[in-house]
Amino acid sequence: MEFGFLETVKLLGSLGFFIYGMKIMSEAIQKVAGSKLRDFLSNMTSNRAKGVTTGFLITSLVQSSSATTVLVVSFVNAGLLSLIEAIGVIMGANIGTTMTAWLLSYVGFKVSVTKFALPIIAFAFPMIFFSKDKIKSWGEVLIGFSLLLMGLQFLKESVPDLQSNPEILSFVSNYTDLGILSTLIFVLIGTLITVIVQSSSAAMALTLVMANQGWIPFEIAAALVLGENVGTTITANIAALVGNVHAKRAAFAHFIFNIFGVLWIIVLLKPFLLMVDSATVSIFGITSAYTDSESIKFALSAFHTSFNILNCFILVWFADHIAKLVTRIVKSKGDDDEFRLEFISTGLMSTSELSIEEARKETARYGDITARMSGFVHKLLQASKTKKQTKLLAKVRKYEEITDRIEEEISDYVQKVSSAGNLSAASAKRVASIFSIINDLERIGDLFFQLSKDIDRKIVSGLNFSDDQISNIDKMLVLLDEALTIMNENLNSRYEDVSIDSAVLKENEINEMRNKLRKEHLKNIENGAYDVRIGTLYKDIFHACEKIGDHIINVSEAITGEKEREVKSDIIAD
Questions:
Q1: What is the torsion angle, in degrees rounded to the nearest 10, for the CA atoms of residue 65, residue 71, residue 73 and residue 74?
Q2: 92 close to 319: Cβ distance less than 8 angstroms
Q3: What is the rounded distance in angstroms from the CA atom of residue 59 to the CA atom of residue 90?
Q4: Domain parsing of the chain, residue ranges
Q5: Model's pTM, two decimal places?
Q6: What is the architecture of the domain spanning 351-573?
């Protein structure tokens, strides 16, 4: 048959089918893993060996190298991994991605997948209608795996045979006798294929199919695989373009790691391939990949794995140097980073679990930024020089604008996560908590700004608080600082581990102080102890402080799902 437009479309459709199955399976596995994946990461990256092992295990599980590299960048972006830890995980991930080739070689080419794929889907389909999230996610894993294998089957059927299309081999043979230049050409082609399809697993599947069908010889297939190793790092670097500086560094470290490996293996490619071929012939009892296209899939899988293991073994000792190099090349923007989204500035949303974790980290940082406003207001109250007062007023105003912007951007991001669907019950609850928290944090910022304006009114009018009034406001602000500290500790903790008790006790102290000041204020007004205008400003300030306290306790309520009044009754009962 002629390989025309329709056949090209069928090939692209088959590739899309494969990628879609990979995407469903990868995302479902990450949903099944959920918070356990995060815990596993935090516990298993304390040293290089553990980091490499972690990268290998997670990537073997997720079964998508592009998804995994983007995932690692996202973990760095979300503050789950440091740069050094990420480099170790990336090295292990490179080894883990080679498991895809073995899976496809043993299952995809040796088994008639249509005999098993549809029964698996028949078994898994009812599972996606279960109310229990874990069962639903496992159903998606099985369906994704079946679609992946069916996509591979369609790929095999869509690739034309050489007898009908001898011009294909003729075209390829024109570029196979150029020595190292031939290798570089096909490395570049492999890179471009991976960047286009956005999955090195899909590119690997395509390479295995082409080699198995006799399109390309062993050496060319190996060069394409090397290009796929480079291409997957470009995917991560593109994804990190809108990420923070740590994400950019992690992605660039991955590029350095892979490009170095490709460069040294190109020089030694011929003897290395001969060694791999000899090993696969001895171990698997098959014919040489140089003479039998059926053997290439096993030899290519062995080449991919051995190359990545060897490259990891060489470079794992230089992880610190790689980190220093990328830190020197990818520079931080300095103090400006303080006022930018730190964790969700990237467009990466590989799974709802990870996206929500990024939003949670950003929300914790939002709480810290909001809490700083209390210190500025405190200093403004005590400042006596006009220059310092003006500077502090401007700083509070700037922070109020920052809190408004952060609230809007986190809200937009979480809204996108919600709109994407497939949220588990726990994730949906976390999303609702984050929406509530950022609303309260924005209101805290507004109230601190209002406090600064009240103090500014006092300054402009030339009125002065009495020593007692200043002392009382100072006490209220100290209580707010303590409440904010508790709030931020809760925001930076695992939500399920947070207790609301200390926050409730501090809120009670703030309310009691407000009640005490209100009684004293009314008595002083009746007695004419101070001017009505300064009295009004004084009352507005301590009432605003109490309102801030209400929003602070609301944050802890949203984290724990408990209401203040319920906790109060429990405390009283005890």
A1: 160
A2: no
A3: 9
A4: 5-160+183-335, 351-573
A5: 0.55
A6: Up-down Bundle (1.20)
